[in-house]
Structures are given as structure tokens and as C-alpha cells.
Amino acid sequence: MRLDEFIEFEADERAERRRLAAEKDYGILDHLDSFERRFEEHVSDDAVVGSVSPSIFVGRSNYPNVSTGLLSPVGREERAARFETSAAWYDEGVSIADVFDRRTSLLNSTRGADVADAGRDGGGVHDAWNGWLGVQREVAIADRPVDVEIGLDGTPDLDFDIGTEDIKTPTGPRAAARTADLGENPHVPRPVKKTLEDDDWRAEGAMTYLYRRGFDVYDINTILSAGALGRGKNRRLVPTRWSITAVDDTVGQFLRGSIRDNPTVNRIEVHRNEYLGNAFWVILVPGQWEYELVEMKSPGSIWNPDPGAGVYLSAASEGREGRTGYVEETAGAYYAARMGVLEHLDDRGRQAKALVLRHVSDDYWGPVGVWQVREAVRNAFEGEHGTAETFGEAVRGVADHLPVPLGRLRRKSTMAAGLQANLGDFVDAG
To answer: For every one of its 430 residues, what pLDDT tens digit does the chain have, with 9 covering 90 and above?
Structure first.
């Protein structure tokens, strides 16, 4: 499909999605009151009754002394699995309000721990397989929600934090936990057992092993966060936010190595997807692997809240050998978007230069986490796509639908500036 035809096709699709989409839903505030009532009905004295935990949480404040938590959808135990962040959320088409509803429905029962406690498997009060940490680890490595009973130490804090940090972690109420006991023997998949039993396996190798055996990054980052991967005594609890990026980066490096000697795509392709007020354009160009993410955050969006401000641009890139340091400017979105592109190229047995353009519109009124970046890019390659004769033609065609002029985009984007000459397209940027 020619690029101009593809753009017209996408415009019609976007108009239909806008027609079907609900208005910005701040009804989440009403949900908080209903949760408090439901919580009071399911708490007996100082214990949560009949709790089912689909996941865990490890905080990052005061590292290496961190807060570790078991997450429980109080009063909704029969649907516990749907409260765990996964690719299924995209398939369901959850809205921002849906995400807030699920996040704020999770009680985070917490206890403090030293991250090094995850490497203490030799018995005693800090043994990673005993007590609180043991239950948390069992929940993390299980392939389905686990029955637990949590003894609370005092009254839970029902103040909700729906903050503005783009994180995957829950923002529901918190309670100090005294005890936790399993109500069943969790089912642990055989590949996970293998990584647990091998004390000489580096965490990076264990992560790619699990990924190659069909585990998605969501499962792997939970296992990593619980300190269940790595070499014996070197195992550490990993804050949830860090584990998400660590897995995206590690698996991304593995995939980059897998496509390194593949033939390139044979023409310039333009793919597009839009989800939760975020639009993504992915331009694939023949050549050896190169990648850049450019983010355009519109005024009035969650990251650029002043309606009178201009569009905020950020960018980060890598060449064939990857990067040597963490990406600060685009943070976790960089690694999440890269994952989606690399998975697509690996599935095709190809490699390419990839430019990802992310437009965060003012419809993105609440932060839901980088999972939506990962899933939007993963699914950008479904269905129709456009083609172009030159990279310059592709960028110009896409730029007409971006919130910044072409000249400003080229001044910010290393690829848009550098590939221009490489492809022999010297059209003035204007």
C-alpha cells in the first residue's frame, strides 16, 4: 500500500476509534469510595480473609532497604488474574479509567526487607524461601494467582495515590503486614524450576532462557523482582520499576544479537498504531540495525500539563552495537518500544533501521505505565502498512500528521538528520 493511501486509510480508522471511544473518565474518584466499602466487608480484625494474590511489588525508596508487597484484589478474588498487568490488557482494550480501577483495587500488603535477603537460602529468619519473602517468591514464580492469608499489623491506609509517575506498579491502598501463609501449593512451570535450581546461572541468561521458552516479559520481570534469578548468594530483590526495564533491555539485547546477521527488509515500510491517547509511527528502513525513539508530548498531556506550553520533544538512539548506558531522556519507553520492533524483525527473520515516533496527545490524561508503549508497538505491525521510495518521503509523509514541523523533528532526531544524506534525499527541511 502506498504511503499516501495508508495514511488516508489510517485517518478513517482513527476517526472511527474516536467515535467509539469514551470521553476522559474521571469516574475513578467514585470508585475509590466503593473500594473502601468493599474493603471493610472483607477484612476481619487484622487479617485479610480469602485473599488471592496475582502478583508482587518491590519498592525502590530507601534502597537497599526496600518495601516488599503482596498484591490482593480485595473483594474480587474470583477475577484476580485480570488485575495483573499483561499483554491481555491491550487485547481487552482497557481504558485509562479501567487501568486506574484495577490498580486502585489492589491492596499492597507490605513488609520491609534488605534486597540481599533474596540470596539467603541457607535457613534462618531471612531465608528467602521462608516466611514473608518465601510466600512472596512463591506468588512470583507461580503461573496463576495464589491463595494466601495475610495478617495485617494495624489499620490499612486507604489513602489512594493516583500520582503522575509513568510506572507499572499499583497505586492502591497499603497496609503493613505481619504474616503471610500460603493456602495452597502454587504451580510452578518447569522452566522456572530449572532457573531456580541452577545457582550458577547469571540472571541475564536465565531471563533469555525463559523468554525463548514462551514466557512474556511480564512474567519474567515479576520473577526477577522477587530475587529468584541469578547466581546463588548474589540474588537480589529488584524494585519493580527497575525490573521492568531490566527485562526489556536484556531481552532486547538478546533479540538484537539474533537479528544481527539477518538480511534486511527490502523496502521502506511505515507502520502505525494508536492506543490510550498515544500514537506511534514505526518507519523501517533497509540496512543494518539502528534504532531511535522520538517522543512528542503535547501540551495538556500528563507529561506536559500546561495547556499553554509547546510540544516537548525527547529522543534517544543506538547503533548496531547498542548502548553502553541507561537512557535518561526517554527512560523505560525506549526499551519497551525497542522490544516491539525487535520482536517483529526477529519473527520475520530480518533486520532494519527503525525510527519510532511517539505522539503523546492530551487524551493521555493519566499515567498507565510503559506496558502500553510495548503493546502499542508490538501491535503496530498487524494489518496494513505503508511504503515509501525514500526515507525522506516516509518522514515527510508522517510529519504532516505530527504535532511538530518537519524541521524541528529533524533537528531533534539523529536518524532523520543522518539517514537523509545516506539515502541521497537532500530535500530542504524548510
So the answer is: 777 776 666 666 656 555 544 445 555 555 556 666 666 676 665 676 657 889 999 999 999 999 999 998 877 888 889 999 999 999 999 998 888 888 888 888 999 999 999 887 654 445 677 889 999 999 999 999 999 988 888 766 665 554 444 333 445 788 889 889 999 999 999 999 999 888 889 999 999 999 999 999 999 999 999 999 999 888 999 999 999 999 999 999 999 999 999 999 999 999 999 999 999 999 999 999 999 999 999 988 877 877 788 999 999 999 998 888 888 888 899 999 999 999 999 999 999 999 999 999 988 888 889 999 999 999 999 989 999 999 999 999 999 999 999 999 999 999 988 754 444 443 333 3
Residue 75: Cβ within 10 Å count: 19
- What dihedral angle (degrees, nearest 10) is formed by the CA atoms of 83, 87, 91, 92? 10
C-alpha triplet 133, 151, 53: angle, nearest 5°: 60
H or E element in which residue 281 lies: strand 278-285
Q: pLDDT tens across 125-165, in order?
A: 456 778 899 999 999 999 999 999 888 887 666 655 544 44
CB 12 within 8 A of CB 18: no
Angle between helix 240-259 and helix 203-212 axes, rounded to 10 deg: 70
Q: Which residues contact 72 (CB under 8 A, 6 or more apart)?
A: 48, 51, 52, 53, 80, 106, 107, 109, 148, 150
Q: Compute the distance between CA of residue 189 and CA of residue 210 in angstroms, rounded to an integer.
A: 10
Angle (nearest 5°) at CA 167 between 353 and 73 = 130
Q: Please report, rounded to a whole number, the percentage of residues in the chain having pLDDT higher than 90.
A: 57
Preceding omega of 263 cis (within 30 degrees of 0): no
* Nearest Cα residue to 173 out of 301, 45, 75: 75
* DSSP symbols for 116-159: GGGG--SSSTT-TTSHHHHHHHHHHH-SS-EEEEEEESS--B--
- Residue 100 exposure: Cα atoms within 13 Å on the Cβ side: 23
Burial-class residue 9 by CB neighbours within 10 Å (0-12, 13-18, 19+).
middle
Q: Which three cell numbers stand for residue 393?
A: 518521503
243: phi then psi, degrees, rounded to nearest 5? -65, -35
Q: Is 268 exposed, middle or buried (0-12, 13-18, 19+ CB in 10 A)?
A: buried
**Residues 249, 254, 257, 258, CA torsion sign:** negative
